[in-house]
Design a protein that fits this description.
about 300 residues, 9 strands, globular
Length: about 300
Amino acid sequence: MTMPVTADRQDQRAGSRQERERGAGLRVLMFAVTALVAGATGVAGTLLQQRTTAPDTSAVDAQAAGIAEDLRGDLNAGFYSGGQAYGGQFTEGTLVAQVEAHGGVLLSSDTERTQATGKVHTTEVMLGLVPPGTETVAADAYPVRCYRYTFSIGTHSVKQTGMACPTSRTDGRPGSLAAQMGVLLSQQPTGAFAYRQLTTAGYAHTPQGAVDFLKNKHLVTAEDTVSAVSGKAGSGGVYALALRINGACHYLRMDSSPTASRLIPLWAAPADEQEACGMQQAVEAAALYGVDPAKQG
């Protein structure tokens, strides 16, 4: 179903550090997207030039290091975390917001359980889609690069490694993956600071309640199209939804818990889940990553 959404474009707060960073990145988003979608041939030529001329990757590598530091901050424990519980509670939505703040998108996000450390999370990202700062950066001086992050319990569990970017689009169509990710960025909600910490308390755990939340919290505007809204109850009173905003798959986590106000309820699904956009994937993505081990029994 398609639900037209109307809302003011007014932003009600200045936002967190992540939001300010994301705002700066989005000021140059149209430049990046224009460069990416100008044509698959042009993008391929740029990437080929990058491989043969060994460009300076310090700018995008710095953004990758920034994501690792954000994760370590999320996973900080004990007196280093200012008395907060381990992890400070975060979900896949937190990762998406962090990666976007550093000019990229999530390619994939997976969780495995091991005997040694319990759950191990692996996230693969593509950076270099939005140059840092407000100045235009030449394509050969700011290459698109991909990185893998793994983390489990504690600050020191965060590991960052470089990886080769996938050579094909996630939807199986011909063309550049970088161009596809550029389009994905351009499809995000137009509401100011859409991916920010908010409480969903007071809204019905239904598709209509989800649309009301998006509208009333100014996460979407009249320029956005919200469609294919479907939800499923998860554990702990969580209600997760898969929906499309401007054609891009998003997940929405609705939780009435007082502590859920520190979470980011809305985020774009990873690239490898954009086509499926299923309710079960939304439920799994809404599970907490940062959890106090002492509360796990």
